Amino acid sequence: MSIEIQGINKFFDKFQALHDINLTIPDGQLTALLGPSGSGKTTLLRIIAGLETPESGRIRFSGRDVTDLHVRDRRVGFVFQHYALFRHMTVAENVAFGLNVLPRKERPGKPEIRKRVKDLLEMVQLEHLAGRYPAQLSGGQKQRIALARAMAMRPEILLLDEPFGALDAKVRKDLRRWLRSLHDELHFTSVFVTHDQEEALELSDQVVVMSNGRIEQVDTPLELYGRPDSRFVFEFLGQVNVLSGKIRDGVMSQGDAWIRLPEGCENDDAQLYLRPHEVRLTQSASDQAHLPFSIEAINLIGAEVRIELKPDGWECDELWEVGISHTEFNARQPQRGDRCFTVPDVGHLFCEHSPEPKTLEWR
């Protein structure tokens, strides 16, 4: 079931939480609402669910206007960050709760409820815990029970508010894989809120980046990471190295640092954004770039070695970061305090007087 959001505005007293939100969430896709705290993503999710009412705008499910429908009539499942399980009920009773409180005319018979609960617990691989209470479960198990409870009502849309935020890193990663696998199997339409960039890029089909109650960009994870539309999206999505300077005669410079730009870059004040994997660490400057650094820190944990660099002879608000392989690290043995240089392979140029960023390649 697709979701169409048209011209949604929301106020809390005099504060405007959402500004003219227009968005289409395709049928059967997993969509992430991504942004920092206060960006409006949870408010938008609650409006989709019917838990909040907008001042203006419409919500449609596959063309059907549900703006004025009560939450119980929208066929929406909602999973909260902190599980919201009933402590005095067993796992099975928690999953069955929504079915048991339906009006008599809509309520399935007890055998049907028991069968549905059993099937759902098997789906979340926790049928052996049916008789336990929430206090006897781990965080990951509680979240899977919350998901089973939401799906017991056979919702047409599943909404999740920071579903993995209360879990430790390993459990969070395992549950992400599990939810993605479940979604691919059942093909329901899902929307989840997160401030975790890695989570959004890894789990979703479509990412909606929000800031200050507005949508900054809507795209696939690959396009969003590779071709951000704005400085905000670039800076919010992962580590980025930034060179601010002036372009004159095809060369961008700031202090002792300079980069020779490809043809077509006009004279202007600009910022060049480079991801850590888009620059190479070298022992000397090249004809295309003179970007001097001293090594500030070395992080050997992970699939690659992360090296933090302090600009030498030019100003930058933050340290740069470059990733190299363990093989390259072992061969070169760089040390903290060493002088080095970087050479860009790909960059993204934001000019003061140009609304669109330009992707540059030096390869």
Automatic annotation (TrEMBL):
<keyword id="KW-0067">ATP-binding</keyword>
<dbReference type="InterPro" id="IPR005666">
    <property type="entry name" value="Sulph_transpt1"/>
</dbReference>
<keyword id="KW-1278">Translocase</keyword>
<dbReference type="InterPro" id="IPR003439">
    <property type="entry name" value="ABC_transporter-like_ATP-bd"/>
</dbReference>
<dbReference type="InterPro" id="IPR050093">
    <property type="entry name" value="ABC_SmlMolc_Importer"/>
</dbReference>
<dbReference type="GO" id="GO:0005524">
    <property type="term" value="F:ATP binding"/>
</dbReference>
<dbReference type="InterPro" id="IPR008995">
    <property type="entry name" value="Mo/tungstate-bd_C_term_dom"/>
</dbReference>
<dbReference type="GO" id="GO:0043190">
    <property type="term" value="C:ATP-binding cassette (ABC) transporter complex"/>
</dbReference>
<dbReference type="InterPro" id="IPR017871">
    <property type="entry name" value="ABC_transporter-like_CS"/>
</dbReference>
<dbReference type="InterPro" id="IPR003593">
    <property type="entry name" value="AAA+_ATPase"/>
</dbReference>
<dbReference type="GO" id="GO:0016887">
    <property type="term" value="F:ATP hydrolysis activity"/>
</dbReference>
<feature type="domain" description="ABC transporter">
    <location>
        <begin position="3"/>
        <end position="237"/>
    </location>
</feature>
<protein>
    <submittedName>
        <fullName>Sulfate/thiosulfate import ATP-binding protein CysA</fullName>
    </submittedName>
</protein>
<dbReference type="Pfam" id="PF12857">
    <property type="entry name" value="TOBE_3"/>
</dbReference>
<keyword id="KW-0764">Sulfate transport</keyword>
<keyword id="KW-0472">Membrane</keyword>
<dbReference type="Pfam" id="PF00005">
    <property type="entry name" value="ABC_tran"/>
</dbReference>
<dbReference type="InterPro" id="IPR024765">
    <property type="entry name" value="TOBE-like"/>
</dbReference>
<keyword id="KW-0813">Transport</keyword>
<dbReference type="GO" id="GO:0015419">
    <property type="term" value="F:ABC-type sulfate transporter activity"/>
</dbReference>
<keyword id="KW-1003">Cell membrane</keyword>
<dbReference type="InterPro" id="IPR027417">
    <property type="entry name" value="P-loop_NTPase"/>
</dbReference>
<keyword id="KW-0547">Nucleotide-binding</keyword>
